[in-house]
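Our example pasted here:


***
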Amino acid sequence: MLRTVWFSFYIRQPYILEIMQYYVGKNGQQLGPFGEEQVKARVAAGEFSAADLIWREGMASWEPISTVFNNPYLPSAALGASPLLAVQAGQELAGRGARLGAVLLNGLINLAAVLPGGILLGIGSSGQQGDTLTTPQPMGIGLIQLIGIGLMLLGGIALAIYQLMLYLRTGQTIGKKLMGVRVVKFSDGTNPGFGGLVGLREIVPAVIGMVPLLGGIFSIVDACFIFRGDQRCIHDLMANTKVIRA
């Protein structure tokens, strides 16, 4: 009887283990299911990033692989590799050209958001100047100029809100998303959150950049730091972030 019970438990064990199946979200696709060791092996091989989202039945939401597996590390073949190095091994740094392209694209997108209002403002201003050449009028803002200013504010604010939501959720702005790069925490590849992404990586460098003389020097040195081996600018060092291929 005891032998029968033991044999029954032994046969059922594989099925119990198979329940822990994980699904990985990558490039807009749901991949899987995979076992835990399969996921870790794919992170080590560079197929998955430690920041990719993972889910299994029973989890309330999708979470980064590094969070679920507590910093997944390379399999035993990579003897002596530390967990931190292994997590980073599964994340390929974004190219300098891609990062520059993301900055330029964001600039063009910002310009496009305020361009319609700017055109109306220019039309209103030129029309008012033309009228004053023939008939002097009191200085003021015309209806077309008011509409232009309103459109510029509306476009700029709407874009800023969308960019902020996207940035906080994915570590990407529109430009970064189009160039296939994103910002993650340097130590474990997870989302840096508001403090890292916005506070230390964006606001603090912007404030320093506004300081007379010092700000200009800081901005130049900050950009030049991308030529380091790890391609981390000063704002990345301040925020403990890095930019990887998404």
Q: What stands out?
A: The longest helix spans residues 96-134. The chain has a mean pLDDT of 80. The CA atoms of residues 119 and 148 lie 7 Å apart. Residues 96-245 form one domain.
